[in-house]
Amino acid sequence: MVTRVPAESYGDERSALLSFVQAQRGALRRAVLGLTEEQAASRPSASELSLSGLLKHVAETELNWLRMAQQLPNERQRTQETWADSFRLVEGESVPEVLEFWDGVVEELEKFVRDLPSLDDTFPLPDAPWFPKEGRVSMRWLLLHLVEEHARHAGHADIVRESLDGKTAFELVAAANGTA
Question: Which of 16, 41, 129, 135 could make a disulfide contact with 8, Cβ separation 3.0–4.6 Å?
């Protein structure tokens, strides 16, 4: 659960970008440290977001971007009818199961990125009103976007966790490192 991203070896852009993505994943994972399933699913702030829902959403979002980059179908593709389920755990789902699923996505994404010939390689964006028509993005853009996406939701998770029990990100880092 990285909190400080080490400087990359000279010219190792790939590892540097993956490290920044991993740092944001760690912030999200720490947010559920020591919580029960009920606490993780609760919505203690004005937002509709829960910590377990945020974990599920970022895991599915990371899978979706990976599948787009691989140009493969997403086995967890959401529809308009199931979109809200990507922000909450449904019957039979648990935080450990979501984290295990995410671990698999992370492993697959990191292998995919490390095996790429170049971060300059591109893939097509889907047809959507928020993307340019026939738009393409680079693998570098993908990694930067994951940093952005995860960081945004890590901030949400900080607020939800602090609303739950007053624990701040710094306290959770200390707890995760065994120094609390």
Answer: 16
